[in-house]
Amino acid sequence: MYYESLTKQYPVSKTIRNELIPIGKTLDNIRQNNILESDVKRKQNYEHVKGILDEYHKQLINEALDNCTLPSLKIAAEIYLKNQKEVSDREDFNKTQDLLRKEVVEKLKAHENFTKIGKKDILDLLEKLPSISEDDYNALESFRNFYTYFTSYNKVRENLYSDKEKSSTVAYRLINENFPKFLDNVKSYRFVKTAGILADGLGEEEQDSLFIVETFNKTLTQDGIDTYNSQVGKINSSINLYNQKNQKANGFRKIPKMKMLYKQILSDREESFIDEFQSDEVLIDNVESYGSVLIESLKSSKVSAFFDALRESKGKNVYVKNDLAKTAMSNIVFENWRTFDDLLNQEYDLANENKKKDDKYFEKRQKELKKNKSYSLEHLCNLSEDSCNLIENYIHQISDDIENIIINNETFLRIVINEHDRSRKLAKNRKAVKAIKDFLDSIKVLERELKLINSSGQELEKDLIVYSAHEELLVELKQVDSLYNMTRNYLTKKPFSTEKVKLNFNRSTLLNGWDRNKETDNLGVLLLKDGKYYLGIMNTSANKAFVNPPVAKTEKVFKKVDYKLLPVPNQMLPKVFFAKSNIDFYNPSSEIYSNYKKGTHKKGNMFSLEDCHNLIDFFKESISKHEDWSKFGFKFSDTASYNDISEFYREVEKQGYKLTYTDIDETYINDLIERNELYLFQIYNKDFSMYSKGKLNLHTLYFMMLFDQRNIDDVVYKLNGEAEVFYRPASISEDELIIHKAGEEIKNKNPNRARTKETSTFSYDIVKDKRYSKDKFTLHIPITMNFGVDEVKRFNDAVNSAIRIDENVNVIGIDRGERNLLYVVVIDSKGNILEQISLNSIINKEYDIETDYHALLDEREGGRDKARKDWNTVENIRDLKAGYLSQVVNVVAKLVLKYNAIICLEDLNFGFKRGRQKVEKQVYQKFEKMLIDKLNYLVIDKSREQTSPKELGGALNALQLTSKFKSFKELGKQSGVIYYVPAYLTSKIDPTTGFANLFYMKCENVEKSKRFFDGFDFIRFNALENVFEFGFDYRSFTQRACGINSKWTVCTNGERIIKYRNPDKNNMFDEKVVVVTDEMKNLFEQYKIPYEDGRNVKDMIISNEEAEFYRRLYRLLQQTLQMRNSTSDGTRDYIISPVKNKREAYFNSELSDGSVPKDADANGAYNIARKGLWVLEQIRQKSEGEKINLAMTNAEWLEYAQTHLL
Fold first, then answer.
1. CA proximity to 945, closest of 674, 652, 694
2. pLDDT in tens, 88-106
3. Structure-derived torsion over alpha carbons of residues 1061, 1062, 1067, 1071, reported in degrees to the nearest 10
4. In which element (H, E) is residue 1081 found?
5. 287 contacts 483 by C-beta, under 8 angstroms
6. Is the N end or the C end of the chain the one with fewer CB atoms within 10 Å?
7. Res 456: pLDDT
8. By the 8 A CB rule, do 665 and 553 touch?
9. Weakly modelled stretches of the chain, pLDDT under 70
10. Distance between CA 1165 and CA 978 in Å, rounded?
């Protein structure tokens, strides 16, 4: 087996989570000593102090940017304000923005207190501020010894001061968002000045000064932004009056209003004055109030002003981003998401008419078009023949959106304001909840569709009148986001809370480490008794309870874990042995001390192996003198065998970890609890229950191995510090519990079981969400597995080397199906199918239960979709999907071992298939991550006995089949035994010929249709087989890759299942079975094309002048080439090929005997596996150390598929 060498490859870190059950009077003592209250209060203070810190961040930003000047401001403004723009101007402006962001950050970092940001020193600074109240001071003081609480907060706030182009930074807000707005106002002011508009309360000179470039320096602070926006508001009022007064004048064009600048980062959050609703009344009042203001705005002249400006612009300098906004706009205009993309592709092709249209061309086209950040509506209008429709269709859509808002608001007022009984819970009134949601949804739709013409921010020329009117509408809508979220969260709130509090037991370093010397500081000890595990936490007033405990005198004892660790040897050995206070005791020679200071023991220009060995000998001797470290019993290699100091340090690290046990009388422990000196908890999960008999959960096994003598003797599992204790208070009271009484019938949720038995009864009560009705303590313990292992630097190379010398490696192909959640096909090295299975249902052999997850997810997701529409709280399907994926991962892991196989998956980062797959990309990524994590450290034997943990795949010798996961972007084409292949042509390809449909067919007009069908070599009827034959060479139709075989004859054999809109069913989608040969006969007979004698009818086809004829012929050819055919009820799902194979048969998966793919999803998985065989070829063609290119091109796949046939 190739994987036998893949153990002890690298260390793995895990956090083990278990419940803590208080023992004896522990819980009473915790309450008596106010342990819970102090930490609950600290959590409340955390939110309080975050607010204080946020205020200081704002203060620092204001102080740092007050009265400062940005040197690059003038250069950037000159580019932006140029009348005649050049192609390079956009890039030049972007570069000056980069410079300006750096200048802003330099000013921020120059503040005298900037270095204190994120450090504990900030507390002293804050406490001295005159604005700090007594409550503020007390909250700050509560973190004097607990400042690590703010580690995550400080990391997030650190991003504020980045000069990168990120939307969450101070510099981005000023330079990328506000500066272009400011410069647009400078442009607009020219019209104001020409019109002679002067705002009330502003002198002409004062007003003029607002619109010179240097004024932007005054808007870097929140105070400056407020002042500027206030003045601009006055000018806008005057502009409004001017426009109203002159709107009927002949030829009058409105003066664009000025844009308001965004608030500074953090200051913009003041608008969200509440985070959540606390009552029905507050929610209803907020929705009603917002609706009233919005409706008034939408009925004002703002909307018509926007429409008029849009029409007048004709789309010039009005932009759609080159992202989902473009496809959404395409759907509004053409009722087709891809039309704009198709038109842009055609435009590019026309400009590059003489270039060869091969795969590289289309890749370059995609990259070039992607470079455009946005397109003007004018440009998009000119691409289509029906140019005027874009603007009008968009306006029509916005008008419909507004009308929907008005209708839904009236419904809200009637059902919620007038009819809803306020004494009844709002969440229980489904009609009212639906009315609220429909109203807010309709507002969100308008907001989303107005934002379609948001520019990318990099355009230098924008229609100021359009965007001024556009912004006025969006300002009214922006509040809906927080209102929507708060409303949804309130109305779908679960009846329980999962919120927990970290407990410190009055010690900031609680459980920071387990070393015996640190027990008095960190308060924690671990104990074992009768196969159970315990955590002891000492009262701070009794922190020496285990320093010299009484010698055990009875057989009833706890075994206390005595933990010893020599941490980070490369730091600790020099720190201790060369410390001034220890120099006389360890007595290094002057030569050793001098050479250490020079660094001659380190790799580099000054490295001396002799000096390195001398230092190692000194360290060895000193360790033997050390009071603690001498007890580790180090067994070092001969000094002469070390090539550098790091090899010695690794030996020290591996052996510098030791667990021993001290027997302590049970009575002593009990007395400590009684005297309120020890809090004792049993470490518990269901595997530790006296009723649990099955295999162990992996995390339980890892935890137990920490204390297994076989591990202690040769350490694989290491216990780490930084453990944490959490408390989750009960959130469901006893009278709120939902209880299914003993003997009461309960509906079976498992579809398979429900088919034979709809309900079950139990002899005991079943309580829904019972775990949330009790207070719960939990312990999180970090561990390292494969401790002391030297990490293999090129893990993928190690895997490839193992594969290279094993000729019997098989391949597992996994595909997301349309009829199946996931489909697996295993093939041997010759492409023969060994096993093909759908993973819709998972069988638990231990309990002989089969779970149909496909049916369960269909049911739950149907319910969830309904809940999205009416906001009802529904069963959370997240746990169901997680349960399914964990089961699938286990199945795949077993297949790897059973078949000595590698795994092939779709490459998520390149060409990921989008369609009707049952497993969406997000869930598939989760599966991929879980599979990598599972194979990171694969333990096969999970039995309680653990008789042979050192065997291959045992707990102490786990397989490591994947590399460490960092991110999906960094995965590349391989993670150990998992290889990523492109999804290109996997399910819709004939496995017996390699044929695939490579035609791009679109019936545009008669002339193009004639040219298309003229490209065929022959079109004829084969009376013997009763099929029409289309003979062609793909090279006559495309320059893209088509494999080694470009000549094919496709036939109208068999049946096709066609989807169509049925006029008899209200134009809803329906399906029918089509015999293409019969339909082709009807077409030719109708148009009097004689075919019966088998003549080539191509010339007669292209002499036809009727568009309808070509539409029908195109459709029939498309149906002929349609290889995948499925019914909506799932009864049929097959691949049928229109091409004969070497056995003179047409491949049809419905005729499969198991040696070929048995349905369309199986075909997809099979071909993914076949791409894995190509991967194996690449690996074996390269020698050890040579670079392997695992990126498979379309051409390589087609060639492989046509030469490696079933």
1. 694
2. 888 899 999 999 999 999 9
3. -50
4. helix 1076-1086
5. yes
6. N
7. 77
8. yes
9. 268-274, 385-388, 731, 733-738, 740, 743, 748-757, 762, 764-765, 767, 769-770, 772-773, 817-818, 842-882, 908-922
10. 14
- Tell me how far the alpha carbon of residue 1123 is from its chain's centroid: 34
Instruction: For 49, list phi and psi in degrees, rounded to 5.
Output: -70, -35
Phi/psi at 110 (nearest 5 deg)?
-80, -10
Single-letter amino acid code for the residue at 1100 = M
Paired tokens of 1204: 């490696």
For residue 341, the model assigns a pLDDT of 85
Q: Which residue has the tokens 């934002």?
A: 451
- Asked if 1135 and 1053 touch (Cβ cutoff 8 Å), the reply is no
Q: Is 545 helix (H, G, I), strand (E, B) or coil?
A: coil
Phi, psi dihedrals of residue 348, rounded to the nearest 5°: -65, -45
Among the listed residues 906, 990, 1079, 1199, the single catalytic one is 906
C-alpha dist (Å) from residue 562 to 519, 534, 577, 646, 712: 10, 14, 24, 28, 12
Cα(113)–Cα(94) distance, integer angstroms? 31
Spell 836-870 as b/e; 16+ CB within 10 A means b.
bbbbbbbeeeeeeeebbbbbbbebbeeebeeeeee
C-alpha–C-alpha distance, residues 792 and 800, integer Å: 13
Cβ proximity of 665 and 554 under 8 Å: yes
Q: Number of H helices and number of E strands within the chain? A: 41, 32
Q: Which of 449, 463, 1079, 1161 is catalytic?
A: 1161
pLDDT at 845: 47
The pLDDT score that the predictor gives to residue 920 is 57
Beta strand spans in 1040-1095 (E): 1047-1051, 1055-1062, 1068-1075
Chain segment 1017-1039, per-residue pLDDT in tens: 999 999 999 999 999 999 999 87
Q: What is the pLDDT of residue 764?
A: 67
Closest CA to 838 of 818, 824, 858: 824
Distances (CA, A) of 1133 to 27, 376, 937, 1057, 1150: 61, 44, 38, 9, 8
Q: Which amino acid, one-letter code, is at 114? A: F
List C-alpha distances in Å: 612 to 575, 597, 644, 654, 991.
17, 12, 7, 20, 63
List the one residue out of 376, 503, 358, 455 whose CA is nearest residue 38: 503
Q: Which DSSP symbol is given to 989?
A: S
Q: Which two tokens stand for residue 1118?
A: 């498309």
Look up residue 204 and give its two tokens.
Answer: 């002409």
**Scanning the structure block, which residue is given the tokens 């990328």?**
176
Instruction: Name the catalytic one among 280, 471, 815, 1159.
Output: 815
Active site (annotated) includes residue 74: no
Catalytic residue, from 740, 926, 929, 942: name it: 740
Residue 1043 CA: distances (Å) to CA of 993, 1120, 1144: 11, 21, 21
Q: What is the DSSP string of 9-66?
A: -S-EEEEEEEEEEE-TTHHHHHHHTTHHHHHHHHHHHHHHHHHHHHHHHHHHHHHHHT
Q: What is the largest CA-CA distance in the chain?
A: 112
906 is catalytic: yes
Q: Say what the pLDDT of residue 244 is.
A: 86
> For 356, phi and psi rounded to 5 degrees?
-70, 130
Contact 539, 672 (CB under 8 A): no
pLDDT at position 873, please?
44
Q: Is the pTM here over 0.70, yes or no?
A: yes
Indicate the residue type of 893. Answer: A
Could you confirm whether 644 is annotated as catalytic? Answer: no
- The one catalytic residue among 768, 866, 894, 950: 768
The pair of three-digit structure tokens given for residue 872, joined into one six-digit string = 């009802």
* pLDDT score recorded for residue 853: 52
Query: How many angstroms from the chain centroid is the CA of residue 157?
Result: 22
Looking at beta carbons, which pairs linking 843-846 to residues 24 or more positions away fall under 8 Å? 844/887, 846/694, 846/695
Q: Which residues, other chains included, contact 503 with Cβ-Cβ below 8 Å and sequence gap of 6+?
A: 35, 36, 39, 510, 725, 726, 727, 777
* Spatial distance between the Cα atoms of 764 and 534, rounded to a whole number of angstroms: 30
| Active-site residue, selected from the candidate residues 116, 626, 654, 749 | 749
Partnered with residue 975 across adjacent β-strands are 978
